[in-house]
Amino acid sequence: MPPQNQPNYDFILNPEKPQRSRVPQPKLMRIAVLGGGLVLFLIIASIVINLVRGSNATLPSLTSLIKQQQLLIHITDDAVKQTGVSVANSGAAATIDLTMGSQQQELIDYATLNHLKINAKQSTPDTTKVDSALQAAASGGTYNATLHSTLVTEVTNYRAYLQRAYSNVKGAHGRSIIQKDYDAADLLLKQLNTN
């Protein structure tokens, strides 16, 4: 007796082969995923680099800060050489000199770490006006008053440079350095204003 309804298993034993496209689908997906991943990586890398390095205004801001620090160091070094400087001015000059020296080194280290080259020529202040005013005051017997007002003016200017630099420097480390320097400048102004 012949078999009656036998199931047809031809679809298992002889499956139809699907037509292939020129580029297999898994390969297209891989290319799309890798391309998208590469674009995403480049975007994230550029954001991180900009946050770490800061903006284009970082270098000029740091140069201005170092220039102002150099001016304050120059003024305080000159004050130490003068005779008859009041104890208050002498103490303020010593504090400013030490503060500016350490802050300047920290800024230079920060710039070096971020591959920013500070140009020595651009960071050297023009001290002619300040030197002339202090020399005239020494000759006229008003050196203490002139030194005091000059220090107040230049520390105030330094504080303004710090405010500008804070808005131009985008990295968290650079901003924390500038914030610390700003707080120190406030304390220096308080010390000068109590004299």
Count of β-strands: 0
CATH class of the largest domain equals Mainly Alpha
In CATH terms, the superfamily of the largest domain is Ferritin, core subunit, four-helix bundle
Overall 3D form: rod-shaped
Portion of residues within helices: over 70%
Structural class: mainly alpha
SSE blueprint:
Blueprint: H1 10-13, H2 25-53, H3 58-81, H4 87-113, H5 128-140, H6 143-168, H7 172-193
Helix pairs in contact: 3-4, 3-6, 4-7, 5-6, 6-7
Can you describe this structure?
- The protein has 195 residues and is an all-alpha fold.
- The protein has two domains: 21-53; 56-193, Ferritin (Up-down Bundle), CATH 1.20.1260.
- It is 74% helix and 0% strand.
- The chain is built from seven helices and no strands.
- Helix 6 packs antiparallel against helix 7.
- The longest helix is centred in the first third of the chain and has 29 residues, at 25-53.
- The protein is rod-shaped, with a radius of gyration of 34 Å.
- The mean pLDDT is 86.
